[in-house]
Design brief:
Length: 305
Amino acid sequence: MNAGRELRTGPSQAHIPELQLRPLFLPPPGQEFAPAADLGDDTMEDDATTEPGVPEYNVFGVHPVEAERVFWYRWILGHQISFALWRAMYDIIGDRRDQMPSPPELESLAACIDAYSAMLLYSSTVPRAHYHSHIRHRMMLQHPAFSGTWAPDYRPVRRLFRGRLPWQGDPSCEALGAAVTRNAEAHEYIAGHLVLNGRSLLQQSGQAANLTVLRDKEELYDNFFLTVRRPVSRIEFVRHLRERAAEVSAELAHNGLYPNVDGHHHPVVTGPSGAVLITFVPSVLRILDRATRLVAGQQLQGVGV
Ligand code: HEM
């Protein structure tokens, strides 16, 4: 971890990020992407993520940050990127529950899951006290039982995360299985890190976990994370993902993974129990960039770009 204290890029040179959140547009879960031409959206601009090389970042940030802005931004942006990754995964597994994905599709699924784990880490870099007084408090005001089980894009891929798809036992799914295990451990770790007893708002509310989530709960959830459902083309979807990946890059390059908050850092991974996340600490951008490229390659195949 000490190696992380080295300055890998000149942060004073890094571009100051705007930290401006924007709505994420996604199709309603289970609904196909719209043809680009129907939306007048058939051009794909060159994007920084297509350039070779991923910007590096300091693990421990140098510039003091405005905590409320940075951690709110990270919480919302990290979730929006997770939603897009889940949606890309759904596009691969779809409803063909019995059909084994191809090797490149398996590679993409594993990359998306690792990128989701990296986003769990990114979102969870908020100091614990700040998380409780600001972020969790706002989620609780949105609904006292606010829960990840209401995430509309997660529901269609939940079985994959539970290892319940019939083909997941095949030896060719070993790398995917390892990514699923890493993800479960990462989620459990960050839950225990931010909430010492690991109990969610749903559990604390005393309400029963309900697998048939009502549409109004999904809307409360989407609304909190600035996510709007409407027809979206594959081109637009990829653009949203790439833009957000580039924003994470710029933000990390400037603030470091563990920002300087009033002269202190608040590392997420502090001991052996966080072992699963150690490899993610210096690699958030590389992992996210890889998933973004694979998703873009898959989504843009055959749409003429
Ligand atoms: C960092 C961002 C987080 C994301 C993206 C996230 C995502 C999710 C998702 C998608 C589920 C549904 C899992 C399923 O249905 O199988 C879930 C459930 C759960 N999460 Fe998280 N989670 C995050 C942070 C946390 C934190 C900080 C806690 C700490 C208490 C937590 C505790 C739980 C618990 C206990 C459940 C089980 C259902 C419930 O009680 O709400 N999660 N989470």
